[in-house]
Amino acid sequence: MKYYDKLIFDLSKEGRQGYSLPANKWESTVSELPAGLLRSEAPALPQVSELDVVRHYTNLSQMNFGVDSGFYPLGSCTMKYNPKINEEIAANPVFAGLHPLQPAETVQGALRLYKDLAAALSAITGMAEFTLDPFAGAHGELTGLMVIRQYHIARGDLKRTKIIVPDSAHGTNPASAAVCGLDIVQVKSNPVGLVDVEDLKPLLDDTIAGIMMTNPNTLGLFEKDIREIAALVHACGGLLYYDGANMNPLMGVVRPGDMGFDVLHLNLHKTFSTPHGGGGPGSGPVGVAAHLASHLPVPKVVEAEDGTLYIADGTCKCASSPEGSGAFGPACGCAPECKCGCQACGQISGFMGNFGVLLRAYTYILMLGKQNIKKVGPLAVLGANYIKESLKDVYKLPIPTVCKHEFVFDGLADQSTGVTTLDVAKRLLDYGFHAPTIYFPLLFHQSIMIEPTETESKETLDEFIEVMRKLAQEALESPEYFKEAPHNTPVGRLDETTAARQPILRYKDLV
Fold first, then answer.
1. Biggest CA-to-CA distance, the chain
2. Using CA atoms, how far apart are residues 455 and 70, in angstroms rounded to an integer?
3. What is the pLDDT of residue 337?
4. Rounded Cα gap, residues 137 and 131, in angstroms
5. Strand ranges inside 72-217, DSSP E
6. I need a labelling partner for 461 at 20 to 30 A (CA). Which of 151, 339, 406, 493 fits?
7. 166-197: per-residue pLDDT in tens?
8. Strand order of the sheet with strand 437-438?
9. Is the model's pLDDT at 279 over the cut of 70?
10. Sequence-ordered alpha helix ranges (H) in 62-107
């Protein structure tokens, strides 16, 4: 039996210890805890040696799959390699030792980095200004939508409570809109997977706050009608929101701001090579066009005329503020260009965002530079099209056109054996590859969504292609064995429905 076959409780032996502490010399001076706070019996913790603990959790850690251990072609998530120099910079005590409550004058370097990173992201995206405060992509979506709402509210345009979302959108788009108090209106895709402009036109009226789009979209296709869509939405008084989850193929080549987008978020943990997965860490900076800059959330970094950086917290300090200086929001009466942040949509994070992640992204941008950052997108697009063209004879390609960074198969080309997309994903694990995204987007019944990113070599892509072709053959020759996969992993095929509906969360429920 291997270590991963046992729980830490299985290794427990009564009386075994991993440490010992000296006797408490100050026992007589320690106050007794109230009886109501004390346990009636000791917690049922495992009793193990230090060596057992180290071996157990080291073995468990080696079961995790990550981009450092293998190919991770997860569509729509851009699981690219994280350069180790990013980690070295972020771990530098000069940065790691900073405290968020330090006075601004003692962290001028960190604030300058914040300001310079915002400027770099503005240049890359075509936006006028950025906030780096949001902690994740969905958090960035919510923030961007709050900016849009604040813009309409500040203008007294209170009827605009609807947001248009394509049927191919990431699931967080309608969820973020709902959290922001907006009603979702769906626009359909046309037969070639793009936003149907004719379906969009009747939806546009004076209740529309804006439209949320990803370009290229979730099918990996460039929305070629984006300029027309932008003109239509702007004509009805709405704004365009850009979901930056798919920015990787465009970086340094095309800017969302030039397409007509007013607001966007970026996933630093995707496009800009910072850690990704496992619930964090993450960062979802939000950029806006000039006419929305005053509505970005606080706190925000502001530069004084002498070059000193300070943090504006949103309380108005302008001469034009009415009696009772310190007002927040439009009531302060300041001009829209007020730098105090009093026109802001609010505060969405405790401090200034996830600074360690911002450091990593800044390092990545500086390492590439203006010239090399232009190579990222074309390489990502090349890799995706190479895989697509190499497999389209054995996997069903519903939209046979040039893709950008990712593409979607609709299951196996020959589905007569009943082998499903889930079976393909499970069997792929036996060959040491993480499965692509499956059953998303929802436009196709057996979706397999593949995104290789620019950091993978041709040799890795060739190995993946070879295995995927082998799986297609196996599905025809041994479908029943195929449906029982995986066979070579520590845990075999799980009953995922029962696991989701009746999870076993405690050791005592297992024995």
1. 81
2. 12
3. 53
4. 13
5. 129-131, 162-166, 183-187, 208-213
6. 493
7. 999 998 999 999 999 999 999 999 999 999 99
8. 407-410, 447-450, 437-438
9. no
10. 84-91, 93-96
What CATH superfamily is the domain 370-501?
Aspartate Aminotransferase, domain 1 (3.90.1150.10)
Taking the alpha carbons of 330, 332, 333, 335 in that order, is the dihedral positive or negative? negative
Q: Enumerate the domain spans of the chain.
A: 3-61, 370-501
In sequence order, what DSSP letters do the residues of 308-338 get, joined into one string? -EEEE-S----TT--SSS---SGGG---TT-
Mean pLDDT of 372-394: 97
Instruction: Return the number of other C-beta atoms located less than 10 Å from residue 356's C-beta.
Output: 19
Q: Tell me how far apart the alpha carbons of residues 497 and 495 are, in angstroms, rounded to a whole number.
A: 6
Q: What is the pLDDT of residues 81-100, one digit of tens each?
A: 999 999 999 999 999 999 98
Spatial separation of the C-alpha atoms in residues 59 and 67, rounded to whole Å: 18
Residue from 343, 347, 321 nearest 131 by CA = 347
- DSSP assigned state of 182: P
Q: In this structure, what DSSP letter does residue 105 have?
A: G
Bridge partners of residue 163, in order along the sequence: 184, 210
Question: 81-90, 101-110, 160-169, 335-344: which has the minimum mean pLDDT?
Answer: 335-344
> What CA–CA distance (Å, rounded) separates 197 from 358?
37
How much is the average pLDDT of 441-464? 96
Which of 308-312, 452-456, 473-477 is predicted least confidently?
308-312
**Cα end-to-end span (Å), the chain:** 18
Total residue count of the chain as it appears in this document: 511
Q: In the structure, how many helices (H) and strands (E) does the chain have? A: 15, 12
Q: What is the DSSP letter of 4?
A: G
Quote the tokens at residue 423: 């079976």
